[in-house]
Write a structure and sequence with these properties.
The complex is a heterodimer of chains A (342) and B (293). Chain A is mainly alpha-helical. In chain A, 81% of the residues lie in helices and 2% in strands. Chain A has one domain: ABC transporter involved in vitamin B12 uptake, BtuC (Orthogonal Bundle). A two-stranded antiparallel ribbon of chain A has the order 1-4. Chain A has a two-stranded antiparallel ribbon with strand order 2-3. The radius of gyration of chain A is 21 Å and the shape is globular. Chain B starts with a helix and ends in a 14-residue tail after the last helix. Chain B has a two-stranded antiparallel ribbon with strand order 1-2. In chain B, helix 1 (3-35) packs parallel to helix 5 (142-164) and helix 9 packs parallel to helix 11. Helices cover 72% and strands 2% of the residues of chain B. Chain B has a domain at 3-118 and 130-218. Chain B is an all-alpha fold and 293 residues long. Chain B contains eleven helices and two strands; from the N terminus they run ααααββααααααα. Chain B has helices at residues 3-35, 42-59, 63-87, 95-117, 142-164, 166-176, 178-183, 188-213, 222-234, 239-259, 268-279, and strands at residues 133-135, 138-140. The longest helix of chain B has 33 residues, at 3-35. Classes of the chains: A mainly alpha (342), B mainly alpha (293). Chains A and B meet through helix 4, helix 5, helix 9, helix 11 and helix 13 of A and helix 4, helix 9 and helix 11 of B.
Chain lengths: 342, 293
């Protein structure tokens, strides 16, 4: 009964709600496009970085938040995407509109190769497989020197659109904004489809899902491939954004970073992935500013303290959100809005 | 030296190095047995203990014996704190969430140690003699051999304790069926806290031994992740199987060092883990924990 009346009232107000919604979305996009006109370059740099992190976090959120597949190797799949771009560009001279999709595909293929054996079984095996992926892929980035150039890494030339090089923060910003919009809408639509409902059914109770006719193994594989694909796209954009790739960027700390982003934002929420990525991207910056302030007071050596400080805070965020607010910032946001609108 | 002789020598040294891994593995499995919790912070607990030892023995100049006592007390206190603050409230939550909590705790400890003691290697006082030991014709480095002996003694003592003491019986009862154990008057929460104490002790000893054989760095604990990976695949069902997994890792690392460049050693356990997943998804020792879907 409840559901029926709710639906009916939704149908009545539906048109009005939709209009308001489209206006808000339009305003948001206009604001995003206008941002470089008003904001300092430094902000645009962060906006670009944030966009890349949002895409990667969507990927982990699809795996972890929606399907319940924990991955400790997300950074390595981001690395696969970045290296795909660097390698295809350096050795085959491919343009970005080929390398970026291929980066997503190669990350998905490698992700599935690592995930396949353990996705067939329940339990902790996938965690171990992704941890193995993290260490083995990073090892490959460092050791396969003839291709990856070892610790030094590879330079990446800026992407060019219609002969127009995206060689500064503002220009690549637009590419990233476009990618974020496409990837966010796609993630949202997948989640609302039959596939997304299957993901959530597996997360909630896999046996029941199977009894109800959900092909668990193929949907798990799909979720894992999709999540890795997002990681690959994020990595590709990161390569063009930094204009270089090296193995150090894709260590375990970055995997912990994405894990924190999903947990802090709220597992199983598109808005959560965005909020989480934003929080985690801005946090190190605030930490840096904060430690610049306090560093002079306590005469700390910033270079050595900053990385462990980040590690500590990422860990604290993971633990305290899991303990105190497992549904993350998205839930806090929802609650705040409800209070506000009342 | 003939290839076979070399193989035997590397194998013996590797298995000796595996003693510490077996000790780590024991710490991981007792916690798993009592509460189905995979402790991804084991390596960091180990590393922190070694730094406690350093702080007491070197910074406060208390000497190795008092240093060890302080390290043990500190490690136990930290383990109890972790259990009380972060693990107990997670009882009944999905195991993936608990894994993430322990992973987060690991990150916190790594960060704190990095801030307090910095990223560089530190030298701790040598408690193990360097003089090598000859096994027939095989030459075993002194520190490795002595660390192995200590690890084996501790492992045997702990297993005997878990087998014959009241606390051990309570632990096994809680592991077999927590609800029944609880209704028979066993305080399951205390049993879980007790297993964290055991993990702290094995972590502390293995950490100090490890820092003695190699050096003291914030990366000291990374080996526990390797151990965890292999232990999970070895099957968490039996303590025996878990101990064997520890020795297998030590052996494999040594053998890899013999045939491949040394860099390959760091990924050996993970390659092994993936191979096991491919060919024997039920775990090496066929545990019943694994469910195919």
């Amino acid at each position: 009964m409840m559901a029926v009346t709710a639906e009916a009232s939704h149908a009545r107000t539906g048109a009005r709600v939709d209009a308001g919604r489209w206006i808000r979305i339009g305003l948001l996009i206009a604001a995003l496009l206008a941002l470089p006109l008003v904001a300092p370059r430094y902000w645009i740099y962060f906006a670009g970085l944030l966009g890349i992190n949002i895409i990667a976090t969507h990927g982990l959120n699809i795996m972890m938040g929606y399907t319940g597949l924990l991955s400790l190797g997300h950074a390595a799949f981001v690395g696969v995407g970045a290296y795909t771009v660097a390698i295809l560009q350096t050795y085959f001279g491919m343009p970005f509109w080929i390398t970026v999709p291929l980066a997503g595909v190669s990350a998905a293929v490698i992700g599935v190769a690592f995930g396949l054996p353990s996705l067939r079984i329940r339990g902790l095996y996938l965690v171990i497989a992704t941890l193995a992926a993290q260490f083995i892929l990073q090892f490959v980035f460092v050791q396969w020197q003839s291709v990856t150039n070892g610790d030094v890494g590879l330079p990446v030339r800026p992407a060019t659109v219609f002969g127009y090089a995206l060689n500064n923060e503002t220009r690549i910003y637009y590419l990233i904004v476009a990618a974020v919009i496409v990837m966010t809408v796609f993630a949202r639509n997948v989640i609302r489809s039959r596939v997304g409902r299957a993901f959530m059914a597996i997360r909630e109770r896999d046996l029941t899902a199977q009894v109800l006719g959900v092909e668990i193994v193929s949907y798990k594989l799909m979720a894992f491939a999709l999540g890795s694909f997002y990681a690959g796209i994020a990595g590709a954009l990161l390569a063009y954004f930094n204009q270089f790739v090296n193995p150090e960027q894709f260590g375990l700390l970055l995997s912990v970073f994405f894990l924190s982003a999903v947990i802090v934002g709220g597992m199983g929420s598109i808005l959560g992935a965005i909020l989480g990525a934003a929080f985690m991207t801005l946090l190190p910056e605030l930490l840096r500013e904060g430690s610049l302030l306090f560093g002079s007071v306590f005469s700390l050596d910033l270079g050595t303290v900053l990385t462990p400080l980040r590690e500590t805070i990422f860990g604290l965020l993971i633990v305290s959100f899991l303990l105190l607010e497992p549904r993350g910032l998205a839930q806090l946001w929802k609650r705040a809005r409800q209070k506000f609108s009342r | 030296m003939s290839p076979l002789q070399q193989f035997i020598e590397y194998s013996i040294v590797g298995i000796a190095a595996g003693g510490i891994y077996a000790l780590i593995a024991l710490g991981i499995i007792v916690i798993f047995k009592s509460s189905r919790t995979f402790n991804f912070a084991m390596g960091e607990m180990m590393m922190l203990s070694a730094y406690f030892f350093y702080a007491a023995a070197v910074t406060l100049a208390l000497g190795p014996v008092l240093g060890m006592v302080v390290a043990l007390i500190g490690s136990i206190a930290v383990a109890l704190l972790i259990e009380r603050v972060a693990i107990r409230p997670m009882l009944g939550r999905p195991f993936i969430a608990v894994v993430m909590v322990t992973f987060g705790i690991g990150s916190i400890i790594r960060g704190i140690v990095g801030m307090v003691w910095g990223p560089n290697d530190l030298q701790i006082p040598a408690i193990l003699s360097r003089s090598p030991i000859m096994l027939g014709h095989v030459f075993v480095p002194g520190k490795t051999a002595r660390a192995f002996a200590i690890a084996v003694v501790i492992v045997v003592a702990l297993i005997a304790y878990l087998r014959y003491s009241r606390a051990g019986v309570a632990l096994r009862a809680a592991a077999a069926d927590a609800v029944t154990a609880y209704s028979m008057g066993i305080d399951v929460r205390r049993v879980i806290a007790f297993t964290w104490v055991i993990a702290a002790v094995t972590g502390c000893i293995s950490g100090v031994l490890m820092a003695n054989v190699n050096t003291l760095t914030p990366h000291l604990g990374m080996v526990a992740l390797n151990v965890l990976a292999v232990v999970i695949l070895g099957g968490m069902a039996s303590i025996g199987g878990v101990l064997v997994s520890g020795f297998v890792i030590g052996w494999l690392e040594a053998i890899t060092g013999l045939y491949l460049p040394t860099e390959f050693r760091e990924i050996t356990p993970y390659v092994l883990a993936l191979i096991v997943l491919l060919v024997r998804p039920n775990g090496l020792f066929g545990s019943k924990e694994v469910e195919r879907i």
